[in-house]
Design goal:
CATH topology of the largest domain: Rna Polymerase Sigma Factor, Chain: A
CATH superfamily of the largest domain: RNA polymerase sigma factor, region 2, helix turn helix motif
Structural class: mainly alpha
Shape: elongated
Radius of gyration: 22 Å
Number of domains: 2
Length: 176
Amino acid sequence: MTAPQRRAVHEAMVRLANGDRAAFDAVFSGLWGDLLSFVRHALPGDPDAEDLAQQTLLKIFFRISDFDSTRDGVAWAFGIAMYEVRTLRRKRGRRREVVPAAAPIAIDTTRSPEGLLIETDLIRAVSEALDGLTDGDRAVLLADTDVPPLVSPAAWRKRRQRALERLRAIWRSGHG
């Protein structure tokens, strides 16, 4: 977002906060693309990213009367978006949901057939090793680096260490 676009969105948010309903479209069109991109980047490969971006915009519109016009409106909106992302991650951590897998790994087709075969076999072997873990171990290993709420950092590190030990044991049993 360029500086003039940012100013225009801020001014539209100020007008909307003051009751000018005609500014709704300007705020929506100014924020939607960047908010969606931000949420998709924060939750890569997550099918709920677009829903979360919509939920964020709804929260922005519901709380627009709380907006302080002396502060940057875009930063305020992205602060709400980051809060929503963290809330979703915490909910998933409490429910021990497995985060959806990211986009499939792309294989370089410019390599030799032998290189492609080796890479394909390696990807398959890693997938099989991860499938041998429990859902909890997979969630710990595939989670981002944030420590979930209600878990001490030391306990989180220990869980991660144990999950890695189990992954190593599975790998060694199948691949030496």
